[in-house]
UniProtKB/TrEMBL annotation:
Protein's UniProt name: Dihydrodipicolinate synthase family protein
Catalytic residues (UniProt): 140 (proton donor/acceptor), 170 (schiff-base intermediate with substrate)
Pfam families, per database record: DHDPS
Chain sites annotated for binding pyruvate: 211
Lineage, opening ranks: Bacteria, Pseudomonadati, Pseudomonadota, Betaproteobacteria, Burkholderiales
Source organism of this protein record: Pandoraea terrae
Gene3D superfamilies in alphabetical order: Aldolase class I
Signal sequence bounds: none
Protein family membership: Belongs to the DapA family.
PANTHER family tied to this protein: BLR3884 PROTEIN, DIHYDRODIPICOLINATE SYNTHASE
Length: 326
């Protein structure tokens, strides 16, 4: 197993909604450009993107929009896993046609106690149906949500069958022993922990970087940690990104991320989530911002993303306005 890659951070990009709960596509694209400018790749349609609250058509159209808007497809790692095999094939084929860096594929969920044989057949059917040499599949292990773990034996089997296609995995299990075992067992496989707090342990074992929810709010800090790993200051950089991660994950992650982005972009509309999710409460949101402020946290140039703050006098009102749908 041999793959060449650079360490990268991908953000499962949060999805902005209008008051009507339709996707705010221009706002989404602007935020994607900001993330890229801070050094992050775009794992659009991940868990924290509210991907499973988006339709297939919305995901296809949003991906098309990003490409048409000038986003480099090599920056894109869209989520294409789905319960229904035809849906997974459709989304994966679309991403491959656009020459995205790869796809991040959940296993089919809802049915539990699925065998490795069934999962192998699912991934194999997608790969064979897409039939593209440009396709790069990153498995997505998040059993606490899916109820369907991706075993080490399944990884080994998929890599043996599709060595140029199945090239990595995101481990969102939260189980360090699982991540550590994969890093030791599959050298050269692109293994991404789901938290930057694990990088100090994962990078020496060959981790490819991380795909982290909190890359939405601290992409630059994580990118710097990855790019400067092994140089003086590692401990301080690691401590800082870990502290920010710890604050954010004390609240429901999607609502917390959107609250932070709303605050620092001076754009309360960012707080909106699609049901059944709910926005962060005012008290929880204020506590979150206070805790981040105590860490001297900032999102460089984020205020330039505001769609509503046109004049300086409007900024305070924009930042504190109630979000549509909250």
């Amino acid at each position: 197993m041999s793959h060449t890659y650079e360490r990268r951070v991908f953000a499962p990009v949060i999805t902005p909604f209008k008051g009507s709960l339709a996707i705010d596509t221009p706002r989404f694209a602007a935020f994607c450009r900001w993330l890229i400018g801070q050094g992050a790749g775009l794992a659009v349609f991940g868990t924290n993107s509210e991907a499973n609250s988006l339709s297939l058509a919305e995901r296809r159209e949003l991906l098309d929009y990003l490409i048409q808007d000038g986003i480099d497809p090599f920056r894109l790692l869209p989520g294409t896993g789905a319960c229904a095999l035809p849906d997974a094939i459709e989304l994966t084929a679309h991403a491959a046609k656009l020459n995205c860096y790869g796809v991040l594929m959940l296993p089919p969920f809802y049915y539990t106690s699925i065998s490795d044989d069934g999962l192998f057949r699912y991934y194999a059917e997608v790969i064979e149906a897409v039939g593209s040499s440009r396709l790069r599949v990153f498995l997505y292990h998040i059993p606490q949500f899916t109820g369907v773990p991706i075993s080490h034996a399944l990884i080994e089997r998929l890599v043996a069958a599709y060595p140029r296609t199945v090239v990595g995995i995101k481990d969102s299990s939260g189980d360090w022993s699982n991540t550590e075992t994969m890093l030791q067992r599959f050298p050269g496989f692109q293994i991404f922990p789901a938290s930057e707090a694990l990088l100090e342990r994962a990078l020496p074992l060959g981790a490819a970087g991380c795909i982290s929810a909190t890359a939405n709010i601290q992409p630059g800090g994580i990118a710097t940690l990855l790019h400067e790993w092994g140089t003086p200051g590692d401990a301080g950089r690691q401590a800082r990104v870990s502290a920010i991660r710890a604050v954010a994950q004390r609240q429901p992650m999607i609502a917390a991320l959107k609250h932070v982005v709303a605050h620092f972009t001076l754009d309360a509309a960012w707080r909106t989530v699609r049901p059944p999710l709910t926005c962060l409460g005012d008290a929880e949101g204020a506590a979150l911002i206070a805790q981040l402020t105590a860490l001297d946290f900032s999102m460089p140039a984020a205020e330039r993303l505001s769609a509503v703050c046109r004049q300086p006098r409007d900024c305070a009102a924009a930042a504190s306005a109630p979000a549509p749908g909250c």
